[in-house]
Amino acid sequence: MAQPAGSHSSLSVQVKPASARDGSTLVVEFREDDISQVIGSLLKGQSLLVLGEAGSGKSILGLEIAKRLGSDYQVAIASYAGSAKQTLIAIAESLGVPIETSDERPKPLTADQLRVEIRDDMNCGRRLLIADDAHRWPASLRYWMEELLRGKGLLLLLADRPPARDVFLKLPRMELEPLTPDEIRTIMYAEATAQGMAINPAKFADLQQRVGGNPALAKRVVHEELLGIGEEMSTDHRQYIDGTPFLIASLSAVGIVRFIGIGLGDKALYIVGGVATLLAMTLRTLFYSMNRKSTRLGK
Amino acid sequence: MMSVTHASLAIAATAIGIGTADPYVLTTAAIASQLPDIDTTESFSGRLIWPLTNFLEQRFPHRSLTHSFMATGIVAGLAAPLLWFQWQFFLAVVLGYFVGWFADAFTKSGVEAFYPNPARLVIPGNPRARLDTRSPAEYWVLSTAVFLTVISINLTSAGGLSETVARTFFNDAGSAADLFHKHGASHRVFVTVEGIHTYTRQSVSGTYEVLEASTSDLIAEHVVTGQIYKIGKGSDAQIRPNRVKVKLGDPVSVSAQMFNLQEIGVMEWLAAVPQNAYISGSLVIDDLDEAPPSANLETYPTIRLSTGQLELQNAHPQEILSLLRDFWILQGSVIVKVKA
Which range marks the domain in which residue A57 is found? Predict the structure, then answer.
């Protein structure tokens, strides 16, 4: 499965399916520089925001960091799955914070109480909270994280295009760069091998167009190819540049011809240039209206 | 995109871009348009240069390295020696290669135009509005490209787009004069004139071959009768046109020769001049007072009397002979034009 771990569960430790292990180890290998940079920063006590598109390996990076710092730090990895309280409980469990009152008739702590407990615990030091898919976290939890930061809390936020406000603005941020074509090819190859299928280089080169530098997509397109499903040319990665404005600009430059025609007193050139200008304007309207991209999947 | 679409787009772009109809240049562009696809063994050009293709295919995604401005620059560099041969071929190679990959920006996959930056250039940004290979939309693009090529080649053969517009929409003596100035040296230029004769007030409709042109007036010879008229808005024009349609005729080469005449009989001189010549210049002849007036009032006066000498303008040898058979030329200088 190519889904990032933790996106559908708030548990800190997850056993990944065997088939994905190859891919994930490769991603860790290819993201080694990023990982050591993050760890270096965390060891200095500096919280961090890591940005990357969906499938770029943020969650894998989070898991790896948790693994490496696990011996020295109490680490909690959490993601938000619809309930702030569930998230808080998961964090508390990972940090070893009690989730029940400590009197003789234990009652579960309320969300507010959990917030306070966790904050107090984080302020003791040697605690790390990794917030996966932090862009999904509700405002209440984000404000609470700001509060953690004001104390001695150490945070690692993993997010995909979060809004430019509150906690996201306050943390130093690092962007996960797309993997290189070579690295992507290695992941695709490993994935195909793990599935016991042989794909020829021409097919790899063709599939790789749909991947960009996104390791999760690398795995997905291989699976789609093996299953014989999926769009022939999906466009899900983010490494696209829309060239429409350039094209329209250069078309509009045809209008120059009209003015040359006027200047030289060449009536014919004036007419041709004028017609070309209007054609360019028509095309511009068409391109503008065509350019509204749907964010929905499917036809 | 299919390779035939690439080829036809490249041909259309080259035909329009450099205004050529040369089949060799257009073929060069079509071949160059296949080069970007050497990065996949699925293409014909890829199978042709197999070792290189294999190398690229193992390392790069399709439509990356070879579909970029950088690669176009390299191709331009490699093709630069063609500039010393014929610049059209250089442009055909560069334009063909560029169009060959740029067209793929309109497909779903896009192209890594700014390689080594891996971002893919796409037009338009909406993937649903981009082309699928072998989709009906691609066949539309293909047929539009073929259509544009045909039009462009036709226009180029007829002197280019703006000239065709001028000839279609501005039916006056001025645009005929412009065309004559442009092509008169190499082609015969014909005008079909509808108008009125200034002296006789008869309607005129006929085809004339242009012999000379000022800014807005033409001196032209009727193709059937061989009579010469001045057509235009000048006060001395015989035909005032309402509509002048101009077209280029067969290629022609005009040779002109200058003669200085001294003490020679008209008959003796004309014996050496070809029958289809046009003679312009001035002659001083003996007994000028006895020279008969020009025979035809309603045509352009090719032979005129002025202050002691005869002025000739595009006069035929026969005309001169019929008027001045027995006269003696004291001196004169003339230009004899002969169409070959």
Answer: 18-175
Q: Tokens at residue B191, please?
A: 């005008």
Q: For residue B328, what are the β-bridge partners?
A: B265
Q: A106 in helix, strand or coil?
A: coil
CATH number, domain B163-251: 2.30.30.690
d(CA B94, CA A172): 46
* Same domain, residue pair A22 and A151: yes
A178 cis-preceded (ω within 30 degrees of 0):
no
* HSE-up of residue B252 (Cα within 13 Å, Cβ side): 21
Instruction: Output DSSP code: residue B273.
Output: S
Q: Residue B23: which region, alpha, beta or left (left: phi > 0; alpha: psi -120 to 50)?
A: alpha
Tell me the ipTM for this assembly. Answer: 0.78
Q: Judge: B39–A205 Cβ closer than 8 Å, yes or no.
A: yes
Better pLDDT: B128 or A65:
A65
Interface of A with B (CB under 8 A): 178, 180-182, 184-185, 201-202, 204-206, 208-213, 232-233, 235, 239-244, 247, 261, 266-269, 271-272, 287, 290-294
Task: Answer yes or no: do A66 and A162 share one domain.
Answer: yes
Identify the DSSP state of A125. Answer: S
Whether residue B62 and residue A209 make contact (CB cut-off 8 A), yes or no, is yes
Q: Is residue A12 part of a domain?
A: no
Kindly state the tokens that stand for B278: 């046009």
A248 and A218 share one domain? no
The residues near B140 (Cβ < 8 Å, ≥ 6 apart) are: none
Strand, coil or helix: what is B104?
Answer: helix
CB B148 within 8 A of CB B18: no
Rounded Cα–Cα distance for residues B118 and B106 (Å): 17
As given in the structure block, the two tokens for residue A178 are: 């797309």
Q: Report how far Cα A251 is from the mean position of its chain's Cα atoms.
A: 36
Segment holding B330, helix H or strand E: strand B328-339
In a domain, A188, yes or no: yes
- The per-residue pLDDT for range B272-322, each reduced to its tens digit, is 888 889 999 988 888 777 777 666 778 888 888 877 788 888 888 888 888
Distance CA B23, CA A6 (A): 63
**Sequence-ordered list of residues with C-beta below 8 angstroms from that of A6, at least 6 positions apart, any chain:** A14, A59, A62, A63, A77, A78, A79, A132, A133
- Rounded to whole angstroms, the maximal C-alpha distance in chain B is 97
Asked if the Cβ–Cβ distance from A268 to B64 is below 8 Å, we say no
Say whether residue B110 is in contact with chain A using an 8 A CB cutoff: yes
